[in-house]
Amino acid sequence: MSRAKALQYYILTRLLLAPLMIWTIVTLVFLLLRATPGDPADAILGNRAPEAAKQALREQLGLSKPLLLQYFDYLGDLLRLDLGTSLTSRGLSVWEVIVQHFPATVELTTFGMAVAVIVGVGVGMIAASNPNTPLDIGGRLFGIITYAIPLFWMGMVFQLIFSVQLGWFPLGTRFPVGAEPPPTITGLYVLDSLMTGHLGEFAIALHYIALPALSLGILLSGIFERIVRVNLKQTLQSDYVEAARARGISEGKILVSHALKNALIPVITVLGLTFAALLGGAVLTEVTFSWPGLGNRLYEAISLRDYPTVQGVMVFFGVIVVIASIAIDIVNALIDPRIRY
Q1: CA 254, CA 259: separation in Å to the nearest integer?
Q2: Whole-prediction pTM
Q3: What domains, with CATH codes, occur in the chain?
């Protein structure tokens, strides 16, 4: 079988398996929510609410039905793309909650990943091109430390130093309270302010996102530093690099034009999957910085046992991760001729 046909078969197989992966995520979310101790009616209405009101809420949520019937009703709603109505957002549908909060998560994740890639690839290149030197040791320590530090702890330390003590960065929101944000086009304040020519709002939006993005990006950069360092170090010892050196090509050109290109192939996989995971899991950063994204909203919904919102947001995040994993596999197969299926 030719590589083109094998690749087509692989892509088709992955696409056919995608619904199975999504169904697994949907089922796990449903079962885990039902297995969590406590009564959603008590969490939402309070222990002192009348029993009649609690029973009415259970009827609204379908919790009075047998578990299997609840499950089939849930699947039927999902097939109609009906995620339900949020119980803690003044009657908004779950789709409206997602549309309202997801742009903030995308913006934070994008800037955080940009910081992670720039810092991680840069430190990894310096460490790999100076093996067994203090720069190499420093790069390894940087990767280990940033990988090990808890995200919430780093976020609190950054807030204490740069916001409370030095006063360089604001806290707790995406834009000043009472100020008018840029006109909404994409929901991303930095991009919307550029698209509409509001440079003042652009500077403000950058100022507000800087500290959360730096905290997230620096801690993620350790992942990329370790991958780049290991792969680049191996690539610099390969035969074609030695041949390039024998032809008199400078070390800088060998590093950038020859070795780095191949060393970055694994980074693409990690970059895509990490970005997708962050879209669905930047909860710690958003809660630590009170960032009004979908992760923070999910945390609130879990605390209040808002079943429809938790289920809808988790399924939404799961679909994103599944799609991203398939897309990354396809991109890797297209750019790396060594991959065979």
Answers
A1: 6
A2: 0.81
A3: 97-308 (1.10.3720.10)
